[in-house]
Amino acid sequence: MTARWTIGERALDRSRPAVPQPATLQPGSRGIVDLLFFLGVVALLSLSDFALEFFGLPYNSPGGSIIVKIHPATYLFSVALGLAVIANPNPVGYLASLLLRCMGSTFLLLACILLWIFISRYKGDQPASFLIDAIIVAAIIYMLFADVGERAHLAIARAVHVLMITNCCLAMIEGASGWRLFPFVMSDTEQVWEYRATALLGHPLGGALATGVYAIVLMTVKDVRGLSERWRLPIILLCMATMPFIGSRVSFTVVYMTAAAVLGLRLLHFLRGGAVSLRALVAVLVLLPLVALVIFALYQMGVFDNFINRFINDKGSANSRLRLFELFDGIGLINMLLGYRMASLETQVRLTGLAEGIENSWAGHAVRYGVVITGVLWFGIAAWFVDMLRSAGRGAILPLAYIFLILSTTVGISGKTTMMSVPAVIILALSGRSRNAALLRLPADAGNDVLSRIGRGVPLPGSGGVRLS
């Protein structure tokens, strides 16, 4: 038995007879749910941990209630999913159907619950609340996208484009001028010497990951929701120009290598007699020399000096990512199975010389919680990755591989970050399937892109509001 959202009063394809669905599983429309979902996406992409601290919420600061330690977007997503379930005429049946259709995300939620119980029972000296924003919300986001209609999906995609473009522009302004939208504060200390931009997305590693995922989706996915073809190349170039200002070396390398590979394949296709659109050819001939001139001028002005110095002298950052595996040398059986106590782990980290901490999500899980429960968590994360591939298709392979690489070289999801949830929103919003996507046949350049249609309010087939009575 499956649950499907109905598609409003107007028939989208009169040539096909309507197939009746069981009334008990029809959730109706998702007006309130989609509004909360949309607001959650906006909050997630615009309110970084630095912004929350700036506005007076001790999100990362010591002390305070657990209520203020959870991102506002997580509350919005959770309420949206709860309303989607209880507003259904058959909440139990719909919830069961949703969990079965989102099996990978269901496994991830179960794994997080088991890890939370394990930490509460055996790791009283370590917090478990980081699981909410770091991992659990990614599963909730996937479940919300599972039944989103095309109207709401398009609105979310437009919001993602607007916010990502805004973030890129702010990051370039911050990197070039030294001004910051929100102070870069770590451990109650403002990082006044830090040159890397934070903009809307916060910490440079998370901002670089999100910007890189966005750029790679635009490079590799054929049909990007909410964006017409004529804007694709300029936005890709904008993202690539932003990467040095954010400052993540791994993200910079991956994005530029992906761009080189895509450009090489396009050139090979052209040399083998393939057709190339006149608009794309003119754009390349005009934009590439202009971009090269701007980059050369900025280089001469010394804008990229700090970023280049990070490649020349990384202050042992790359070496620390290799030395962290020394934490497993001579580890006892109990610590291998159940993980280190916090005090013991901190001692081992200092003795190993890991000044920046454990910059590998998977190693961070293993040394803290042991291989048994960590293996369960990893299985849940792998299942969630499979869910993402099922929804977004082959176009998600490269972005997901990139996410895995970055999580393997940063603290990532072994701490409280949004390095799973933000990329999930970008991938699912721009390339994920809607519940009624098969019924909609919009032209590729029908003017539904965010830059040419924003504010026009052109109606699309969709659903109304959720009825709670």
From TrEMBL:
UniProt keyword annotation of Transferase present: no
Keyword line: Membrane, Transmembrane, Transmembrane helix
Transmembrane intervals: 35-54, 66-86, 98-118, 130-148, 160-179, 199-219, 231-247, 253-271, 278-302, 322-340, 366-386, 392-413
The keyword Membrane is annotated on this UniProt entry: yes
NCBIfam families in UniProt: exopoly_VpsF
Protein name per Swiss-Prot or TrEMBL: O-antigen ligase family protein
